[in-house]
């Protein structure tokens, strides 16, 4: 689009009032019935949101004017108008039926939807991110927009359930032209904005514990993980065979210990380079010796030898003292009760049974007061169709996974990336291939981050909300899906280069476009890691941890699906947070894998000990065979499902059955209730008291004996 002008003037030359007048004209023009004119106006608004890049000379100028224009557009009510247009497009049955009948969907079928979603995404993401130079007016606008997105202002529900509806409609094949990548990105950023990220979640945890008079958290988990170092990966069977052959050839030599590399220090050299060469010379007993940030002393192909120590220094003085464990030990009240009960039975032959508490069991305390938090409002909006939302997200995740094979009956997630005319040259084919892979990676990133945010915030808001979402994930085969995702060459996935830097925004609109060649596309960018894919892997591992933690039946699913070798291969990625989640998943199933597995993987067991939190009576490293018996999956899940249904019925069902109605057992509350009595009651109440109260004998001794 050429430079935006108003009476021959550039946008940057207009005063703020003149800019507001022009935006108001665009807002009025959005209401025209002509679809082509409406699309032209929407493109003009998108150009403003993108920072009027045709008038800018640097990338900083584009970002400045984009931020300025986005706040201006929000102040003028553009987002509400776009929401109305989006609702019209969602309910456009003619466009949906036309797309269903088409043999192939392309970019041209979702032009208007993509323009609307792009503007809304830019507005949500730009306003969400706070900068140091924001004025008080912008800070107030941010809070107002955050409240607006999280409140049931759009047809009685928040904005997020509307986007979830688009996802389910797409996955049900009723709207195959919906641009899913943009919908998922907007949905993720909307929930991130309204509920808050991990740092805001940590702050909410601290505040809630203070309100409930609980002890403070022993540490900030985010800070602890950031300070952890990655460990060297364990060797595979083939690598062990090669190591034995090289030892016979006398290639083994002892070298002093040196610091290992990790993603935190990747600028020194590529930690993924020559990974196979490095492993083939590792000793089988020293493969995982980098627990404290050290590599195997035989790793001589890629690490420069440090100067030798002074000759007079005895070798015995070169001792590395172990650091403290990164996590403070934890214990649950349930574990303490189990430990005390076992000790009583073992030493004095006495058990308390189920009567371990002197507090009376109260059925209810009257009507429950529910705080209208953003998470509570979102859960209430998602509750009627939550199972459909979860299934739709997992379908998209399966379609975007690199290990998935194309099937004729699978959903087409490439509708908003495939052009109308297929490429005819090698260069065009390579560019399209990169776009398709990048498209899938972004979908995986958005879904993994979205699911993790929902699990974390619902767990903090109410545990049964978390359990409801987690159980739907389990029932929709999320566990084997994530394991299938990791059953690939994870090193190649982490280091994939599916991006073209010259086409990144705003670089592509400010600088001259270089000539793209097949060689430059094949070389990729200069980044040694794909942070997008690493982010997705960590999220998926965290989701798997959350839905299997403290659930024996789900832990047995990890064992049944043979996840241990898949997870061990993921340890090759030398990033501390990813390795931590992998080790957590290995820890919860080690006692079910047998003594031989533990004996053959002592280095992995050592890594679990040093990196994963310890708990009282934690028998993960020495579980007996009796502990490895198969658990009744159906009974455990059904019991949990019953508790969840009771919670949802009691809290959200307006037409409650008498069985789930809370009982008010507070004397003051009951006596304070207003009861409707007949008009003539005050004439006969003395007779009623005499007949129903005073004339009835009371057996006080019987009441005392009953107590």
Task: Write a short abstract of this structure.
With 707 residues, this protein is mostly helical.
Layout of strands and helices, then pairs:
Elements: E1 5-6, E2 9-10, H1 16-29, H2 35-49, H3 59-75, H4 78-90, H5 93-101, H6 111-128, H7 136-150, H8 159-171, H9 180-195, H10 198-211, H11 221-227, H12 237-248, H13 275-279, H14 333-347, H15 374-382, H16 386-400, H17 426-461, H18 463-475, H19 478-486, H20 490-494, H21 507-510, H22 518-523, H23 531-548, H24 552-560, H25 563-570, H26 576-587, H27 590-593, H28 595-600, H29 602-611, H30 633-652, H31 667-671, H32 681-694, H33 700-706
Antiparallel strand pairs: 1-2
Question: Characteristics of this structure?
Answer:
2 strands, mainly alpha, 33 helices, 707 residues, 56% helix, globular
What does this structure look like?
56% of the residues lie in helices and 1% in strands. It has 33 helices and two strands. The chain has helices at 16-29, 35-49, 59-75, 78-90, 93-101, 111-128, 136-150, 159-171, 180-195, 198-211, 221-227, 237-248, 275-279, 333-347, 374-382, 386-400, 426-461, 463-475, 478-486, 490-494, 507-510, 518-523, 531-548, 552-560, 563-570, 576-587, 590-593, 595-600, 602-611, 633-652, 667-671, 681-694, 700-706; strands spanning 5-6, 9-10. Strand 1 and strand 2 (9-10) form a beta hairpin. The longest helix is centred in the middle third of the chain and has 36 residues, at 426-461. The protein is globular.
């Amino acid at each position: 689009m050429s430079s935006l002008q108003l009476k021959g003037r550039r946008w940057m030359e207009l005063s703020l009032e003149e800019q507001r007048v022009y935006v108001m004209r665009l807002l009025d023009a959005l209401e025209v019935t002509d679809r082509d004119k409406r699309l032209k106006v929407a493109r003009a608004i998108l150009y403003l949101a993108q920072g009027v890049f045709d008038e800018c000379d640097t990338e900083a100028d584009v970002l400045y004017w984009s931020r300025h224009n986005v706040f201006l557009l929000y102040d003028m009510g553009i987002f509400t108008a776009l929401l109305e247009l989006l609702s019209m497009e969602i309910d456009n049955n003619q466009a949906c039926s036309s797309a269903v009948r088409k043999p192939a969907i392309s970019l041209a079928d979702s032009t208007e939807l993509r323009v609307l979603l792009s503007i809304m995404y830019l507005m949500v993401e730009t306003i969400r991110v706070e900068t140091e130079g924001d004025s008080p007016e912008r800070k107030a606008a941010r809070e107002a927009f955050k409240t607006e997105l999280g409140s049931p202002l759009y047809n009685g529900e928040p904005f997020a359930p509307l986007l979830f509806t688009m996802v389910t409609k797409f996955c049900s094949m009723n709207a195959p032209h919906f641009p899913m990548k943009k919908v998922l990105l907007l949905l993720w950023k909307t929930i991130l904005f309204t509920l808050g990220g991990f740092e805001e979640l940590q702050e909410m945890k601290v505040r809630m514990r203070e309100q409930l008079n609980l002890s403070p958290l022993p540490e900030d988990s985010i800070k602890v993980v950031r300070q952890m170092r990655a460990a060297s990966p364990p060797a595979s069977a083939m690598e062990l065979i090669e190591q034995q052959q090289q030892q016979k050839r006398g290639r083994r030599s002892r070298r002093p210990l040196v610091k290992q590399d990790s993603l935190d220090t990747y600028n020194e050299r590529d930690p993924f380079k020559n990974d196979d060469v490095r492993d083939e010379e590792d000793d089988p007993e020293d493969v995982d010796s980098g627990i404290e940030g050290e590599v195997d002393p035989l790793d001589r192909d890629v690490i420069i030898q440090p100067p030798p120590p002074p000759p007079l220094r005895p070798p015995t003085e070169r001792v590395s003292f172990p650091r403290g464990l990164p996590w403070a030990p934890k214990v649950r009240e349930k574990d303490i009760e189990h430990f005390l009960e076992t000790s009583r039975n073992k030493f004095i032959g006495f058990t308390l049974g189920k009567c371990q508490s002197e507090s009376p069991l109260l059925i209810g305390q009257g009507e429950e007061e529910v705080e209208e938090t953003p998470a509570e409002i979102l859960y209430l909006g998602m509750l009627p169709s939550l199972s459909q939302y979860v299934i739709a997200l997992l379908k998209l995740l399966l379609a975007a996974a690199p290990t998935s094979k194309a099937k004729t009956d699978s959903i087409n997630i490439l509708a908003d990336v495939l052009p109308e005319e297929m490429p005819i040259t090698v260069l065009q084919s390579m560019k399209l291939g990169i776009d398709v892979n990048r498209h899938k990676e972004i979908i995986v990133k958005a879904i993994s981050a979205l699911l993790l945010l929902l699990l974390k915030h619902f767990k903090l808001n109410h545990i049964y909300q978390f359990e409801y979402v987690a159980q739907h994930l389990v029932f929709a085969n999320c566990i084997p899906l994530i394991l299938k995702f990791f059953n690939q060459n994870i090193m190649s996935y982490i280091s994939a280069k599916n991006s073209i830097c010259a086409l990144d925004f705003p670089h592509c609109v400010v600088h001259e476009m270089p000539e793209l060649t097949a060689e430059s596309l094949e070389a990729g960018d200069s980044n040694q890691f794909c942070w997008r894919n690493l982010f997705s892997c960590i999220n998926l591992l965290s989701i798997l941890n959350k839905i299997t933690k403290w659930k024996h039946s789900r832990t047995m699913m990890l064992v049944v699906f043979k996840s241990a070798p898949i997870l061990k291969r993921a340890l090759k990625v030398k990033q501390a947070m990813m390795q931590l989640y992998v080790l957590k998943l290995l820890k919860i199933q080690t006692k079910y894998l047998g003594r031989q597995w533990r004996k053959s993987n002592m280095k992995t067991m050592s890594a679990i000990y040093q990196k994963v939190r310890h708990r009282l009576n934690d028998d993960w490293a020495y579980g007996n065979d009796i502990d490895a018996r198969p658990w009744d999956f159906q009974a455990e899940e059904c019991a949990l499902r019953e508790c969840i249904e009771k919670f949802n019925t009691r809290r959200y069902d307006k037409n409650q059955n008498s069985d789930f109605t809370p009982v008010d057992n507070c004397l003051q509350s009951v006596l304070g209730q207003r009861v409707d009595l007949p008009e003539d009651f005050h004439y006969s109440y003395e007779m009623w008291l005499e007949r129903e109260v005073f004339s009835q004998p009371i057996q006080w001794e019987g009441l005392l004996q009953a107590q």
